[in-house]
Amino acid sequence: MSLLIDRYDLSRRHLLRALGGSAASALVLPFLTGAALAQPIFNTYPFQLGIASGDPAPDGFVIWTRLAPAPFEIGYGMPMVPVEVTWEVAADAGFKTVVAKGVAVAPPELGHAVHVEVAGLEANRDYWYRFVAGSERSGVGRARTTPPAGAHVDRVRFAVAGCQHYEGGYYTAHRRMAEDHPDFVFCYGDYIYEGRGNRLSNGPNGPVENVRQHFGGEIYSLDDYRRRYAQYKMDPDLQAAHAAAPWFVIWDDHEIDNNWVSDTDQDGTDPKLFNLRRQAAAQAYYEHMPLRASAFPVGTSLQIYRRAAYGDLLELNLLDTRQFRTDQPCGDKWGACGELENLKAEVVGLKQEKWLVDGLSASKTTWNVLAQQVMMMDLDRDPGPAVAVNPDSWAGYRTPRNRLLKQIRDRKVGNMIVLTGDEHQNYAGDLYLDGAHPDGAPIANEFVVTSISSGGDGEDQRADMARIQAANPMLKFNNAQRGYAICDVTPQRWTTEFKVLDAITRRDGKLSTRAKWAVEAGNPRLVSV
């Protein structure tokens, strides 16, 4: 056993007194089913998976860690009892001025993960946080609160990233993103990939050897998913990105299984069996993300869609395009078929759609943002006379896509920006009801951000995508390298800077700015800057 425990008696009443009025109590109390071990002695460093913050608000944020001294072993080096973890938040990186502190309990039911909802802080400023378990101390992370609701904000600068296939390459982009010091990070999903370990991948010119390899086979059980998250989170570049800024996270498909929707996977699995996998994956996702208690898993479900504002400047609408979607049309094959016009098709579901439209209609911010997973542009993927769409994007669901865009247009929701991932490429384009026949001003603008590592090194622009871009007038920019984006937003202009690496299959990849595209407030026309 990697953990030696001193005898320590901590009663429920004593622990409740210790927690007092701390912001952690709302989440911790439901799990206090017995005494917690307050003074564990670790033979191996317990913070192997790093630390993180997330879901910032004007008065606080979530801070996260998970104790795992031996992440790949059965039991991950921990006893199956609750363990006490202390936490501190300071106004300075040296912790000379501690402004909040408390005690949380890492329960075995959650893989000894800790989610502390820190509150009572000042708005719109940096803070630093850390954890202590026994005599072991975590690293230090930087978080930042958001501006007060409705307050005037001159600028926000944040990063967009996702699709970080471990086998595809190194996480150099995460290290560079951390060095950019964003106010926050929006992670659009595909935080892990569920497939088995593979020595080789299929490249454009034949098989290529992966620079690193997944541990084990395809993942199904809770322990499988925990080990996979551990392998990703042990990466020091990813840990640096989490420690640099708070994250808003949503999931896409690979956190569970490729192209899943609702209770359907694409392998023909009995939905009852697939839901067992979904339940394990949902719990593991919550265990490893800096999410609030409002997202706590219930069976197969997580409350992923939510809203966050940055004063009067922008409002993020974080969407869930997986849990409530109907099955992909056309057998989930690229092309065209009558199912594209299915009147009963859904992407976000009617309840989430109403929540979204009502929120957009009531918004008083300059910029309104859909932060979501799959492309909304209805790209024709066949540059010839035929028509082909990606059925796993909004283009495969014409009824709900056009219904949402019409409501945005008719309710005069201004300065509408859509942030997307999934495609492993960079795109900048305009959104119309029918992109092949654009009519009038765009309803919104979409920035699709490339992968951190999925797809390997990539190239500036693939030959097939050059032909597709030429055939789609709404698409203004395309690039197929790896990297992330920085969104620099003021009341006058939204600018998206696409940052790319020349290689990720070696650790010394060089970062550069491939392009900058901007939208002026009140004029929804993309311009290159």
Helix fraction bin? 10-25%
- Quaternary state of this entry equals single chain
CATH topology of the largest domain: Purple Acid Phosphatase, chain A, domain 2
Kindly name the structural category.
alpha+beta
**Ends apart, CA distance between termini:** 58 Å
Number of domains: 2
Question: What do these coordinates show?
Answer:
With 529 residues, the protein is an alpha+beta fold. The protein has two domains: 3-144, Immunoglobulin-like; 156-528, 4-Layer Sandwich (Purple Acid Phosphatase, chain A, domain 2). 18% of the residues lie in helices and 28% in strands. It contains nine helices and 26 strands. Strands 11, 12, 15, 16, 17, 18, 19, 20, 21, 22, 23, 24, 25 and 26 form a 14-stranded mixed β-sheet that branches. Strands 5, 6, 8, 9 and 10 form a five-stranded antiparallel β-sheet that branches. β18, α8 and β19 (416-420) form a beta-alpha-beta unit. Residues 1-33 have low confidence and may be disordered.
